[in-house]
Design goal:
With about 280 residues, the chain is an alpha+beta fold. It is built from eleven helices and ten strands.
């Protein structure tokens, strides 16, 4: 799978790939690279520099150097094209060399500073680290400003919100939705003692952290959704299925949100790190 915007922010490059390590690949100590993974390897090493056939035919040509993530140590792994008539490549794993990912972990490669890096981590760790795109330090200040009449707290938003969100747009969206949760309007919502109105939160479906990657304004009505506190926490923290369900429902309700950055529902799954990894 090709790196998305999450990985671009995390690794500071969009030239990379990631895949799930199967039980069989771990047992056989070899990874099969196809599609974008194979192209990444070919582009980096050069097609003529990749051995066609078994590694024993030319051990020196089969040996390829990688930078191991995150240590930066150079490791050598064997890479071959096992069948001349096919495009797939075979990368041999080696505990001795320092790269033997566990079954059901994520292995990844990326090019940065003219080096090809390779690494692996448990799937849960990978998803957690790649979820950073949907968090920001000023979120609490932003949400508090929507349910407060205190002018001091409203001014704090302007001082602390790194993404410069307009609270009035969020309040407008919540009013437009008749103070209901856009994922499930039947959810029980308590009354705020500060405003005497139903307590709802504003969620930017396309994360505001992407603003640094685009000139397209993300703090717009089509990208703001009215969610109850439960659903707002769920879209950030729930299991993959519930998060996907919420995303699907919100997109179905306002499909034009996809046009803001020309993304697909699958792209949104990737942004929230709930995509299917294969």
């Amino acid at each position: 799978m090709k790196f998305g915007k999450n990985q671009k922010l995390k690794f500071d490059t969009d030239t990379g790939s990631y895949s799930l390590v199967t039980d069989r690949e771990n047992f056989d100590s070899q990874l099969t690279a196809t599609d974008y993974e194979a192209q990444l390897l070919v582009d980096y090493f050069g097609d003529s520099n990749i051995l066609v056939g078994p590694k024993k035919d030319d051990p020196q040509k089969a040996a390829k150097d990688f930078k191991h993530y995150p240590s930066g140590k150079t490791i050598t792994l064997n890479l071959v094209r096992p069948k001349p008539e096919k495009t797939e490549l075979r990368l041999y794993l080696s505990s001795r060399a320092g790269f033997k990912p566990e079954p059901n972990s994520i292995w990844f490669m990326f090019v940065k500073d003219s080096n090809l890096w390779i690494g692996s981590m448990p799937e849960t760790e990978w998803r957690n680290e790649n979820s950073i795109i949907i968090y920001d330090e000023s979120e609490e200040v932003y949400q508090d400003s929507l349910a407060e009449l205190d002018e001091i707290k409203i001014k704090n938003l302007k001082a602390k919100d790194v993404f410069s969100r307009d609270r009035n747009l969020a309040i407008k969206r919540i009013k437009m939705e008749n103070y209901a949760c856009e994922y499930n309007s039947s959810h029980n919502i308590f009354i705020s003692r500060h405003t005497n109105l139903p307590f709802l939160e504003a969620h930017h479906l396309i994360p505001m952290s992407l603003q640094k990657l685009t000139a397209q304004k993300l703090d717009v009505l089509d990208n703001i959704f009215s969610l109850c506190p439960y659903c707002h926490r769920a879209i950030h923290h729930a299991d993959k299925n519930l998060t996907r369900n919420i995303i699907d429902k919100l997109v179905d309700k306002r499909p034009q949100v996809l046009d803001i950055m020309n993304v697909t529902p699958a792209d949104l799954f990737g942004l929230y790190s709930v995509e299917e990894i294969y």
